[in-house]
Amino acid sequence: MAAGWLWRRLCQGSAFPVSYASRIMQKQYFLPSSNLMGARLAGSHGDTQEPKINPLVSISDEPETLYKRVSILVKGHDKAVLDSYEYFAVLAAKELGISVEKVDKPPKTIERLTLLKSVHIYKKHRVQYEMRTHYMCLELKYLTSSTAAVYLEYVQRNLPEGVAMEVKKTKIERIPEHIQKPVWDTLPQVEETEVKS
Length: 197
Prior knowledge:
Blueprint: H1 2-12, H2 18-26, E1 66-76, H3 79-95, E2 99-104, E3 109-116, E4 126-144, H4 145-157, E5 163-172, H5 177-180, H6 183-186
Antiparallel strand pairs: 1-4, 1-5, 2-4, 3-4
């Protein structure tokens, strides 16, 4: 109680210098006891022994979704930015232990726009603008849903400006039970009759 009052007075700007306040608040005293690991007598606030629960982590009994392939297509107008981002994405995948199947660079697309240079006459004087879109495709193999979510969130948060991303996931599913057994095994037997001529 006295330590809290002293701390409030120090924060409000009392006559004590700041270094004196920090020295007082850093001291912690522990009492040896058979049932207590340590009791805090002085300090800014006493820590409770309650278990800390992270609200962002969820535990469920559902099995994880498995992905055979996660394909990431990145589009941008600057080739140097895409090359740098490719290095970052591959390095992040290796750090998380994700196997990179291939890194592919599809051909760029060029969109040209031709406009008249003059407002009224001189139809032959034109100006041509073009937009070049470069692509980079990164394919990852055999991921769980939690690993894919962590990796994709990390990669998307560090996406440079002017770069777009498309993600395609191929999920591995179990074959349904009604398809596992062949249909002809479940059909009833048809008796064959002989035709007399």
